[in-house]
Amino acid sequence: MKVRVFVSLKSGVLDPQGRAVHHALEGLGFTGVEDVRVGRLIELDVADSTSDEALDEMCRKLLANMVIENYRIEKVA
Amino acid sequence: MKVRVFVSLKSGVLDPQGRAVHHALEGLGFTGVEDVRVGRLIELDVADSTSDEALDEMCRKLLANMVIENYRIEKVA
């Protein structure tokens, strides 16, 4: 089973990487960019028997830092 | 307009970060994890007038390394 986990910074948390990307886009001449946030996309290939609870626990224990990040789990197939 | 860009390593490209996460999940006792790949999720807030071509160019010029990475653009709203 393919699972995608999207990890993004909670709103209000400073994102220096996003700021750098924003600045770089402007430097390249792209206009109209108002905000950039950079997160992680983790693609897991897990056994079909893996429960939702186990996936949730993986996120909480390792994949996301729950203090500053949110995560969303999407099952692909 | 909110736009999400998903950047992931092309298949065949070694992913040491994914391997480390895989190893750590096993170390934490999670079984059944077969593969882990780590990519980036970039959330952009751009002007509604931004063209698809401009978004594509941003990805090619800055957000993704076209030699080793693929990208996918998703417009949210």
From TrEMBL, chains A, B:
A Pfam family the protein falls into: PurS
Domain of life: Bacteria
Sorted UniProt keywords: ATP-binding, Cytoplasm, Ligase, Nucleotide-binding, Purine biosynthesis
Cellular component GO terms held in the UniProt record: cytoplasm
Biological process annotations from GO: 'de novo' IMP biosynthetic process
Reaction(s) catalysed (UniProt annotation): N(2)-formyl-N(1)-(5-phospho-beta-D-ribosyl)glycinamide + L-glutamine + ATP + H2O = 2-formamido-N(1)-(5-O-phospho-beta-D-ribosyl)acetamidine + L-glutamate + ADP + phosphate + H(+)
EC number, UniProt record: 6.3.5.3
Pathway: Purine metabolism; IMP biosynthesis via de novo pathway; 5-amino-1-(5-phospho-D-ribosyl)imidazole from N(2)-formyl-N(1)-(5-phospho-D-ribosyl)glycinamide: step 1/2
Annotated GO MF terms: ATP binding; phosphoribosylformylglycinamidine synthase activity
Top-level EC class as recorded in UniProt: ligase
Record's keyword annotation contains Nucleotide-binding: yes
Subcellular location: Cytoplasm
UniProt similarity note: Belongs to the PurS family.
Function: Part of the phosphoribosylformylglycinamidine synthase complex involved in the purines biosynthetic pathway. Catalyzes the ATP-dependent conversion of formylglycinamide ribonucleotide (FGAR) and glutamine to yield formylglycinamidine ribonucleotide (FGAM) and glutamate. The FGAM synthase complex is composed of three subunits. PurQ produces an ammonia molecule by converting glutamine to glutamate. PurL transfers the ammonia molecule to FGAR to form FGAM in an ATP-dependent manner.
Subunit structure: Part of the FGAM synthase complex composed of 1 PurL, 1 PurQ and 2 PurS subunits.
PANTHER family: PHOSPHORIBOSYLFORMYLGLYCINAMIDINE SYNTHASE SUBUNIT PURS
Protein name according to UniProt: Phosphoribosylformylglycinamidine synthase subunit PurS
Organism: Alteraurantiacibacter buctensis
UniProt gene name: purS
